[in-house]
Write a structure and sequence with these properties.
Elements lengths: L1 H13 L15 E5 L7 E7 L2 E12 L10 E8 L14 H16 L9 E3 L3 E13 L4 H15 L1 E6 L2 E11 L7 E8 L2 E4 L3 H4 L4 E7 L5 E7 L6 H23 L1
Parallel strand pairs: 4-6
Antiparallel strand pairs: 1-2, 2-3, 3-6, 5-6, 7-8, 9-10, 9-11, 11-12
Helix pairs in contact: 2-3
Length: 258
């Protein structure tokens, strides 16, 4: 049955479209709302086709690391809610949730997007850590790109809460925002057979041979890469995937700058 389904999928791809009729180099419709969670300091409710994720930003007070006494921190957590897919169950984070958290975190961290020095309260004593929680509400594929984009938009719109006597007052938000030096965009390119494409549904995700997640910043520099899938990719594949990721990242970056 799986071989038959993959055969039909390859027929779609050979016609230049994915199983949902979207062109191989196109994303499904992206829409989002910001600051929809009133108990968060910033949030983004994002839909990518039928995939639906929510990202919320909270701030925590803590002590800095010894080697970076004047820098705060950032942490990304992804939760795959059982309501979002019959494949997810209650319990500790799965390997997929852990990988999603790490790849999204790496893209933001390695880009230097967040000005960590601006999160310092008292050097060597108190700093803020930005915590981004990403929840899958409906998984119809490409949670990685959707979660990364929702995280970035939530960070972009977050307000720092008031701090008094070394404590955070979550009931009062200041006008200060998280200082972003870059807008890292994460694009994951998939390969099935000879075909390379972006934004798979769960149907395509079941059968991909390999994938490459590429995070870039405004000047088109690549700041993070993550290979996935059981099969190898060639240098030619990497070149093709990189070119596609750069093109799509420019389109998405332009969209969220509006």
């Amino acid at each position: 049955m799986m071989l038959k389904e993959k055969f039909h999928l390859l027929r779609y791809l050979s016609d230049g479209i994915k199983s949902d009729g979207v062109l191989l180099d196109k994303y499904r419709d992206i829409s989002y709302e910001v600051n929809t969670i009133k108990t968060a300091e910033g949030s983004c409710d994002l839909k990518l086709g039928n995939t639906h994720v929510i990202a919320g930003v909270k701030f925590e007070m803590g002590t800095p690391y010894e080697d970076t006494p004047d820098e705060g921190g950032i942490m990304i957590n992804v939760e795959l809610l059982p309501l979002s897919s019959p494949d997810y169950f209650p319990g500790p984070p799965t390997d997929k949730a852990i990988e999603l958290s790490r790849v999204i975190d790496r893209g933001i961290r390695e880009s230097g997007a967040v000005d960590l020095k601006s999160l310092c309260i008292v050097e060597g004593e108190q700093v803020l850590t930005v915590v981004v929680d990403v929840c899958a509400i409906n998984d119809d594929g490409n949670l990685l790109d959707a979660g990364a984009l929702a995280s970035l938009i939530a960070l972009k719109n977050a307000k720092i809460p008031k701090i008094e006597n070394g404590k955070i007052d979550y009931t009062q938000l200041t006008k200060d925002t998280v200082k972003l030096k870059e807008l890292p965009i994460t694009i994951t390119c998939y390969k099935i057979g000879e075909y390379v494409f972006v934004d798979p549904t769960t149907y395509e995700e079941k059968y991909y041979d390999s994938r490459l997640t590429i995070t870039t910043i405004d000047d088109s520099s690549i700041v993070a890469l993550q290979k996935g899938g059981e099969k190898a990719i060639t240098i030619s594949d990497v070149d093709k995937m990189t070119d596609l990721a750069l093109t799509k990242s420019k389109e998405i970056r332009k969209m969220i700058k509006k």
